[in-house]
Structure formats: structure tokens, C-alpha cells
Amino acid sequence: MEKEFKLAKNQAWIEINLENLEHNIKEIQKIISKKTKIMAVVKANAYGHGAVLISKKLNEIGIFNFAVSSLKEGIELRENGILGNILIFGFTDYKNLEDVIKYDLIQTIIDYDYAKRIEKLDLSQKLKVHLKINTGMNRIGENYQNIEKIKEIFAIKNIEILGVFTHLAVSDSQTLEDINFTKSQINHFYQVINTLKSAGYSNFSSHIQSSYGILNYPELNLDYVRIGIIMYGVHSEKNIKTKVNINLKPVLTLKAKISSIHELDVNESISYGRTYITTSKIKVATVSIGYADGYPRSLSSKGIVLVNGKRRPILGRICMDQLIIDVTNMSIQVGDIVTLIGEDQNIKAEDVSYLANTISNELLSRLGNRLERIIKK
Length: 377
Ligand SMILES: *Cc1c(COP(=O)(O)O)cnc(C)c1O
What we know:
Elements: H1 2-7, E1 12-16, H2 18-31, E2 37-41, H3 43-47, H4 51-60, E3 65-68, H5 71-79, E4 85-88, H6 97-102, E5 106-109, H7 112-119, E6 127-134, E7 142-143, H8 147-154, E8 159-165, H9 176-198, E9 205-207, H10 211-216, E10 224-227, E11 252-264, E12 269-270, E13 276-277, E14 282-287, E15 304-307, E16 310-313, E17 323-326, E18 337-341, H11 349-355, H12 360-365, E19 372-375
Parallel strand pairs: 1-19, 2-3, 2-10, 3-4, 4-5, 5-6, 6-7, 6-8, 8-9
Antiparallel strand pairs: 1-11, 11-14, 11-18, 12-13, 14-17, 15-16, 15-18
The structure holds pyridoxal-5'-phosphate (PLP).
């Protein structure tokens, strides 16, 4: 405890357990086929974990394929010496495509119109791309039915198509209807791939699955799997059932310090809006973390934190930078550490996000830049 106190400059911080990251990678590699490579999804600052920190460790343990959501995120990795392929999932403005080339990144072709506009550009060299096919997510991607347009994209001279991929909309669900929908997405994707191959285009990789794609459809064995949430050692939701089970260890722990402790009488109110009124004499502590750090305000009078290993409730509204907890009958001091999300079974991201009415992906990716990321030794 004393050591953590000195390590962290701030009142609230994130500890990253890189051994757990390595453990999760090994567990994922057990599920996928030998020829399949992990494309580590490190978008949104690696789901709040710190993209550079996480990607450096991944490079060290032999992962050389990454995905980010934007050009800016790709440049950040390159400027910090990250090696390997980096695919940008989202839209990059035409006027910035020279930077995609300059930083040796790979752009997603998000649809036919995007490709045709790129064709008109006078680029310094061929733009490396993966082509996204829409098979039912209806977000980005050229529709799988437009096979002539897809072939036309393959004929464009100033792009080099290294990969073709699609994204599943309900791969996390085990209902019959959703399984059928997923199977139809997979079939439509294979249709496109086969048509392209018989048209003489064969020099590209293909990929479909993200985290729940591998846990529920492990039999697919394509060139890449795009892994986000489970690499960080958490499930999107609690009690989620999957075809294949995996032993995950959370990588992130969110901690903050107690700044003030005081006794309250019966009938006193706590925090903005006076939404919590004490019904007895209690002892409360103020913790230096708030919704500006990404800790959900919706957990006001609902959330649970760990103090000395014990679960204690948040009382009243969560503020921008502070929140108040019940520490009645506990012997604690200013400077003591509170855990808000973490490795501990009692404070898992799945449970915190459940209480906040969201999924772990959102909870973690919103953890703010004000929080220092410290490697757990
Ligand atoms: C975010 C994302 C992923 C990773 O999803 P997880 O469920 O976190 O594994 C994979 N593919 C695409 C296209 C994504 O946008």
C-alpha cells in the first residue's frame, strides 16, 4: 500500500497487470487454430488501459498485428515505436490518406464510394487497405450483394488490398435466432470470398471474428481474429454463456485515495441534490475520483467500492472529481486506497458495468486521460 501511494502522483490511477495480459493472450491462442493470428484491438486507448503501454507488451510477446479506430490512434502507436501491421477500422478523410502511407498504416475501405474517391487521388504510393464487407451489421462495409462493385474495388490501381473482412452483429448471443443470423452473415461473407477467388483475386487475408466470434464460433479458422475485450481479461457482460470457456484475468484495476473522513449525524444529507439522507449516525469518507474520470455518475447511491477488501456503498450523487462512501465501523485513514474496478472477484468490471446499466467495454474505454496508468510490479 505504502509503495502504491508513492508511485501514484495523482489521487486516482489505473494499475495495469501485464502478466495477466500475457496470460489472456495465451488462453486465446489455445482456442484459435495455429495458422490464425491475433489482431489486437487497441482502439480507444486500448479500452482505457493505455494503448502504448499495452501494445509495447504485445510486441514483446510476439503480437505484430493491431487495430485502432482512427488515424490519430495509429500515429500514436507508430510515434511510440510499435511494430507490425496497424489497421484503421474507421473512416479517414481523403486529405489525410498521405499520413496513412507515411506512418505505414492500413486503411479500411468502408464502402464502394469511399474506394472510388480514393481512386481519383494522386497518392505518393499505393495505399494499403483491408476491404470491409457489410453482411448485416449495417454500419460500414460494402454490401455483400454488390459483388460487381466489390470486384470493381479490386481493380482500383492505387490501393493494395491486403485483407477482406466483415463484422458479426450478434456473435455474443446463444439464441437460435441469433445463431441463424450469425451463420447467414458468415455464409454471405464466404460467398464473397469464393466469388473473388474464382475471379482470380486470391492474394488477400480474411477475418470475421472478434472476442465472442471466437468464443461461440471457434471452428472458423481464418487468417486473423480481431480481439478486444477478452484480451483485457473481462467479459462484456456478467454471466454471459459461451460455447467455449476461457480463463480470463482482468488487466486493469482502478484505484483512488481517501481525502477526508467525517462523522455524520442522523438526518444529514450527502452531496448534490441532497438525494441521500442519513438514517443513523454514520462515518463517511470522500474519495478522489468522479465522473470526469469515467466512473459512471449513474452509480450514485448504487455503486460499490472496496475498502480494505470490504464492499462499501457509494452514498449520494457522484461528483465530477469526488464521491462519498460509507465507512461506518471501519478503521481507515486519509490516504488509504479504495478500489473501484479490478482483478478482485468482489469488484469486477462486469459487476460494476451491470450496476451502471452498461457493458464492460463502455465502462473501461471511458476511463479518462486524467488517470495515470501504472504498471503493476
Ligand atoms: C471493436 C471491434 C472489434 C473488437 O471487438 P471485441 O468484442 O472487443 O473483441 C473487432 N472488430 C471490429 C470491427 C471492431 O470495431
